[in-house]
Amino acid sequence: xxxxxxxxxxxxxxxxxxxxxxxxxxxxxxxxxxxxxxxxxxxxxxxxxxxxxxxxxxxxxxxxxxxxxxxxxxxxxxxxxxxxxxxxxxxxxxxxxxxxxxxxxxxxxxxxxxxxxxxxxxxxxxxxxxxxxxxxxxxxxxxxxxxxxxxxxxxxxxxxxxxxxxxxxxxxxxxxxxxxxxxxxxxxxxxxxxxxxxxxxx
Length: 202
Description:
This protein is mainly α. It has one domain (2-25, 57-199). It has helices at 2-24, 47-59, 67-90, 104-110, 125-141, 143-162, 168-199. The radius of gyration is 17 Å and the shape is globular. The relative contact order is 0.18. The mean pLDDT is 89.
């Protein structure tokens, strides 16, 4: 499971980086945000909430007993990053918050590196993946855990805005992509059960 997750994260990183790189090469990116968003407050206390998504994705595999059960989730999430990276490349955007990006850009500047997330804005994969995590784990863990998981997804979605990493359109499109993935997950589970039973015995 650990090696499988490493492979998934490497694939995600490669596809995501390609999409962001192509997006940042555009000389006239779009600015699809409302004027009021430019002066939205930066809330430092929401940074840990925002970053918690990255940890959740990295450790998601711990919620599953074997690759066979985890495979449908990975398939959907890989499809989502391909869709997102394609959107980054085809529709380059830039942030409009006063002072710029709130989390990764300052850290990257400290070491003289470019902002790793520049260009990767709409759809927001933070929102997409939190919806996927909630949709995948809530049925496994029960209603009480479901309330907590969906509340976590909502908190991360809000945090992406209030740490100046995403605009409203990024959050909305991320929610759409996450919702589509959640709807597709049961179908992918049914489609993969036969193949997984043959090639991935328990």
